[in-house]
Amino acid sequence: MNRSSAPAGFKERVASVWLPVKSFLERYRRQSFAYPYVLWMALFVVIPIILIGVYAFTSAEGGFTLENFSGITNYIPVFGRSLWLALVATAICFIIGYPVALAISRMDAKAQRIMLMLIMLPMWINFLLRTYAWMSLLENTGLINRMLAAIGVFDWINAMHSGNPNYTPITHFQLINTNGAVVLGMVYNYLPFMILPIQSVIVKIDPFVIEAAQDLGASSRTVFRKVIFPLSLSGVISGITMVFVPSVSTFVISRLLGGSTNMLLGDLIEMQFMGAAYNPHLGSAISLIMMAIVVICMSVMNKFGEGEEQAVVM
User: Fold this and answer.
1) Which of 133, 194, 217, 218 has its CB 3.0 to 4.6 Å from that of 97, i.e. a possible disulfide?
2) Residue 301 belongs to some domain of the structure
3) What DSSP string describes 134-192?
């Protein structure tokens, strides 16, 4: 009995030692695939954020200070303008993007691929080149103003006010170096980021759910309000986040299309790090405030996404 039971007991002891080791090695093997990503995030995300925090809370002499944050009060109009234009651009992208995404999701598979390719096609061109193209369109002597002049729009407006001695004839519309031009640039560049996530969610909605709502007597408007929109809310939140975050921090669009009179947060931060008023400590403080604003906005949006399944029932 002892001889026959000894091997069994030995195998149990080996198994009790080997199984935890095997489980650890398997878990280590799976986790090892994430190490390059963790290293990348540490080098290019975590460490830069730590450096920004160090600069934000230190003075030029290296001592701890909060004066960098008190200096931000001088730039409250820039914060307000950046948030307002980003919200306007995000709202316009949503108003345009949701119907487009809904229409694409109702097409057949081949047509969807073609439409998505056409939407992503401008993104294959360099971001800076696309913005420069809008400059050539919106300039005082650009294509839009030349076209309006060719069809006689300015002559017609000047003729309407010809009897007014205080009227100054116009030769162009001021399209560039305005807040409208900045919003236009944001919408043009970031609209695909609104369409793609919404379309990817809507296309996965089970059509039988929609048919069931229609069979129960729900109108098309009720089906959209009670079924389609609540189920697509995760895509809406992703799209809003993907548009709002780059819009509130952009600096290329505001510099090229808005001019020096329409400075946004991105321009202000760049000026502190790269401009003549070199002050990386103030620039870091502004960057921290901007990151806090973005995190708060994203948290609020995520709250709207919670309980979206219950929203279908209500």
Assistant:
1) 194
2) yes
3) HHHHHSTTSHHHHHHHHTTHHHHHHHHTTT-TT----SS---SSSHHHHHHHHHHHHHH
Helix residue ranges per DSSP H, the chain: 2-32, 35-41, 47-56, 67-70, 76-105, 109-120, 127-138, 143-150, 153-160, 179-202, 207-215, 220-223, 229-231, 233-249, 252-253, 265-274, 280-305, 308-313
Domain of 111? 75-139+175-313
Q: Tell me, yes or no, whether 282 lies in a domain.
A: yes
Return the CATH number at 278: 1.10.3720.10
Residue 268 lies in a domain: yes
Q: Is the residue at 42 inside a domain?
A: no
Give tens-digit pLDDT for 188-236.
999 999 999 999 999 999 989 989 998 888 898 999 999 999 999 999 9
Q: Please state the rounded mean pLDDT for residues 34-52.
A: 87
Q: What is the pTM of this model?
A: 0.83
